[in-house]
Design goal:
Layout: H1 2-10, H2 16-40, E1 47-55, E2 60-68, E3 79-85, H3 106-115, E4 125-130, H4 132-140, H5 142-157, E5 162-168, H6 171-185, H7 188-191, E6 197-201, E7 205-211, E8 222-227, E9 230-240, H8 244-258, E10 266-270, E11 278-282, H9 284-287, E12 301-306, H10 310-318, E13 345-349, H11 350-357, H12 365-376, H13 380-386, H14 392-395, H15 398-412, E14 423-425, E15 428-429, E16 432-433, H16 436-444, H17 460-496
Parallel strand pairs: 1-4, 4-5, 6-13, 10-12, 13-14
Antiparallel strand pairs: 1-2, 2-3, 6-7, 7-9, 8-9, 11-12, 15-16
Helix pairs in contact: 2-17, 4-5, 6-16, 10-15, 11-15, 12-15
Bound molecules: adenosine-5'-diphosphate and calcium ion.
Adenosine-5'-diphosphate binds at residues 56-59, 90, 131-133, 202-205, 243-245, 349-350, 353-354, 394.
């Protein structure tokens, strides 16, 4: 008996309360660990969706975006789920048969219906923004542009989505939303010290946008933003008629006016087109735009002949810009104020398509000029043989477009051989297209807050781990205290004995 009691006293685990406490602790700790694992398991996300139609001058694209419903205000959460290019030309080309503009969107909107789960259709906002093609049409024929917009509005209203409006956005908005898109996708608003500038080249207009502290001149070209608790002062300017298709019209007009012919069909010897290129073209196709001069050559047709001389090509391209007039401290061109360039730039849309085709996206400026000169001098039949799959409409213009881009960036915006490396020719960032549409939707759905959202001092996972650790330490301390108590009480018992 005495021996048994002694053993029990030596081994405290034999005591019932201790066993109960140990079991309870094990259960509590097991529970906490399970809870923390369950809490951090990715839960089934509910997504929200948004649709933006980019009604550009050359064509319309439909973008479907998605984001996790409960993370609406976290940057980098919106991703591009689906895109669709509407067949045919841009909506402004329907000026003669406006009621066809809306139905031209049918196939792409049906694709959007398939890309978004049916229960979400009704709550999905759809926006249409038209750019420079419609700006030009409005200038020329306001009724026609109004009818085209009405047609697309009526069509989009009849889709299962929540139609939020169709309008012509301003050049400033186009520039600013492009800037928001590239910086949102690069997570620059919350993580980086600096933002990235945005260069967008379309068919009918081009935009330059960058953060600049120099704000005292030309207030019109500056916008203020407060995003995630930070102030941004952004310079943006849109040049109507300086998209690459309208620039080509300006360029052909200058050349046609410079070499008027008497009787007979006019032949235009063009250094920006390949040698051997020889096509009969309609004069009306050039003069159908408010960008070109009203004095038309008298002939209906002209022969467009390439000579492939890059030096002369650049000299002629420069003539569509006015570099001499400037009443401000510094200008880009045509007397437009532009503060000194700052930081890195993302150049997208036609900047990317053209430079990518020419393999010039990562070449220094001087190398780009040399390569382009060699490309322009290539005979046209060789060019077509080498690029059978490329649309001829694009193929014939790459020499001109490349030269126009280099001239616009160097002589127009004042990039130099040294700052050329700051231009990144990009199509996508984090799997989403660079362009104004995402920024437009983020703004209209209030998805970028002015103030940084309050975040808990430690993340959830850290909180649970700390709690578990805390329970372990507590348990350890209790055991330690118990042992200490046992030892001192048995020592005092011995003393009494
Ligand atoms: N693969 C390509 N190669 C060359 N140019 C292209 C290609 N794809 C699109 N583009 C051009 O990109 C431009 C897009 O402009 P767009 O957005 O329609 O006009 P805007 O923004 O001025 O309203 C057009 O000039 C179009 O011809
Ligand atoms: Ca565009």
């Amino acid at each position: 008996m005495a021996g048994q009691r002694e053993m029990r006293e030596k081994n405290p685990w034999h005591r019932r309360p201790i066993i109960i406490i140990a079991v309870l602790f094990t259960v509590v700790i097991g529970g906490l660990v399970t809870m923390s694992v369950m809490q951090n398991k990715p839960i089934h996300q509910k997504y929200k969706y948004g649709i933006v139609l980019d009604a550009g001058s050359s064509h319309t694209s439909v973008y479907v975006y998605q984001w996790p419903a409960e993370k609406e205000n976290n940057t980098g959460m919106v991703t591009q789920k689906h895109t669709c290019n509407v067949k045919g030309k841009g909506i402004s080309s329907y000026f003669r048969n406006a009621n066809q503009a809306g139905p031209s969107l049918r196939e792409c909107m049906e694709e959007a219906e398939r890309a978004i789960p049916t229960p979400r259709h009704q709550e999905t906002p759809v926006y249409l923004g038209a750019t420079a093609g419609m700006r030009l049409l409005r200038k020329e024929n306001e009724t026609a542009s109004g009818n085209v917009l009405l047609s697309v509005m009526q069509f989009l209203q009849a889709t299962p989505f929540s139609f939020q409006g169709a309008r012509i956005i301003t050049g400033q908005e186009e520039g600013a939303y492009g800037w928001i898109t590239v910086n949102y996708l690069s997570d620059n608003f919350r993580r980086a010290q600096h933002t990235m500038g945005a260069l967008d080249l379309g068919g009918a207009s081009t935009q330059i946008t960058f953060e600049s502290g120099d704000h005292f001149k030309s207030i019109n070209d500056f916008i203020h933003f407060r995003l995630y608790g930070k102030e941004y002062r952004v310079y943006t300017h849109s040049f109507l008629c300086y998209g690459k298709d309208q620039a080509l019209k300006l360029f052909l007009d200058r050349q046609l006016q410079a070499h008027p012919t008497g009787s007979g069909k006019q032949t235009l010897e063009d250094p920006c087109f390949h040698p051997g290129y020889n096509k009969s073209k309609s004069v009306q196709d050039i003069y159908n735009s408010p960008c070109v001069s009203e004095v038309q050559p008298s002939k209906a047709e002209f022969t467009h002949k390439g000579t492939g001389n890059w030096m002369l090509c650049q000299k002629n391209v420069r003539r569509i810009f006015n570099f001499s007039e400037c009443t401000s401290s510094s200008c880009s061109f045509n007397g437009v104020f532009q503060p000194p360039l700052k930081g890195q730039f993302g150049a997208f849309s036609a900047f990317f398509f053209v430079m990518d085709f020419l393999n010039l996206t990562s070449e220094p400026l001087e190398v780009s000029k040399k390569k382009l000169a060699a490309y322009c001098s290539m005979p046209w039949d060789e060019v077509t043989k080498n690029h059978k799959k490329v649309k001829e409409k694009y193929l014939q213009e790459y020499c001109f477009s490349g030269t126009y881009i280099l001239t616009l960036l160097e002589d127009g915006y004042n990039f130099t051989s040294e700052t050329w490396k700051d231009i990144k020719f990009i199509k996508k960032i984090a799997n989403s297209d660079a362009g104004w549409t995402l920024g437009y939707m983020l703004n209209l759905t209030n998805m970028i807050p002015a103030e940084a959202p309050d975040s808990p001092p430690i993340p959830h996972a850290g909180y649970v781990t700390l709690m578990v650790l805390f329970v372990f330490v507590l348990f350890f301390l209790i055991v330690l205290a118990y042992c200490f108590f046992r030892r001192s009480s048995s020592a005092s018992q011995k003393q009494i004995v």
